[in-house]
Amino acid sequence: MTDAAPAHPEQEPDLARHLGLLIQSVGDYAIFLLDQRGYVQTWNRGAERMKGYRADEIIGRHFSTFYQQEDVERDHPGDELAIATAEGRYEEEGWRVRKDGSRFWANVTITAIRDHDGTLLGFGKVTRDLTARRLSEEQLRASAATLQEANQELDQFRRLVASVRDYAIFMLDAGGFIASWNAGAQNIKQYAAEEAIGRHFSIFYTQPDKDRDHPAYELQVAAAEGRYEEEGWRVRKDGSTFWASVTITAVRNDHGVLVGFAKVTRDLTERRAAEEELRRTQERLRRSNHDLQQFAAVAAHDLSEPLHTAAGFADLLVRREGDRLSAEGREVLDQLTASVGRMRDLISDVLSYARLVDVPSAPATVQLRPAVERVVAALEAAIDERGARVELDVPEGAAVSADVMSVELVLQNLLANGLKFGDGDTPLITIAAEPERDGWCIAVTDNGSGIPVADQDRIFGAFEQVDGARADRGSGLGLAIARRHVDRYGGQIGVQSSPGSGSRFFFWLPGA
Fold first, then answer.
1. Which one of 99, 210, 237, 424 has the lowest number of neighbouring Cβ atoms within 10 Å?
2. What pLDDT, on a 0 to 100 scale, did the predictor assign at position 307?
3. 452 and 466 in contact (C-beta within 8 Å)?
4. How many helices (H) and strands (E) does the chain have?
5. Can you give the pTM of this predicted structure?
């Protein structure tokens, strides 16, 4: 056997020239030589395309030109050449910098070049732009992280749904067959998961609903409109019925294709029973109130007749025997006439109080300033008799949502109380209105002796009065009537007072 013949010496220049042409023509890789210190000696078309420098701009410059500032400051380019010198090659991936300052993710290989006796001649450097691949990998990692988070949230949601006991939450397929089951469904409907899954959801419906194909109708509406909701009777496993709130939501995939339905059911049997009991109580109360009103009307009529008779006899006696009556006899007649008047007022107040159980008329816009002025004009005689001063602080345009009669009756009652219980010598009464919340607060303030704190809630009850008040105490129904008028329109009424400092009665009504 003989050794292979060595390459012909004249072929080596051609080989080197061909290799150089090959390297120069490569466009996807930056391939160039560095001297022993790292200065660029050659430059190919791929290097120009990747890094942005022409050969005449970069040859002779140090290869650290392609590195980020922080890499240059820690002499990372020098470390790469040291490793390549010691180990023959160095490879890494990292950020590199183009001529325009933009970055790209590069795969870098640096290979030490030595002659036949091992002397270092320089380095061969090959760089590939992997930015697109890195972005894809980052997107893939981000997508994987997002998917993992979504799966974790889905698992948490599944555990949440599975553990809920107050709601039956389960899935139906597009045909209405049960595909999932939670603890609430088992608690409400009594079926275990293995007993329910795979069966049609119509098993929960009464026979009349099945006969009219109501379950299919619900799915049809949910598919067409996105959801269906109702309350109705449903059937448990043991055949008992319960009143259910039902919501069925259509579930579609990303292409809009119907894949099934989500169904949520809540047992409202107790609430329905409570509502029925409330309705029955309200009906009994309505009948009782009606009977009370009828009784009050009859009683008022029957009581008024003797009063009319007594008043008539007293008047007749005064006209016939007035000149011959003694002072004692006239005093008795005056007391009789006053008692008849108080009794008439009491009967009138009782009748008014009873009538307030009726449904109020529809609220309208009531202008407060004109209403206050009308009430003050109606009580002008009483104001003059007491020598009172009435001051108004009600802005024009202030309006509430109620009815005129109710507002004026409340104002009249509060103003009359102020006249009655104001300072004995110089009563001063202020009527003011201020905006509050979404309505108006109307206050009637007097300078009387005040009301003890313990009595301030009690006086709004029927036939309640303050102990030790003036002799002319009235029927004890005025404030109770005022409260009923205010309550009828969603308002509030109250008093602020302390003994010796007067009283501030106020009521709030929603704005118009």
1. 424
2. 65
3. yes
4. 16, 15
5. 0.40
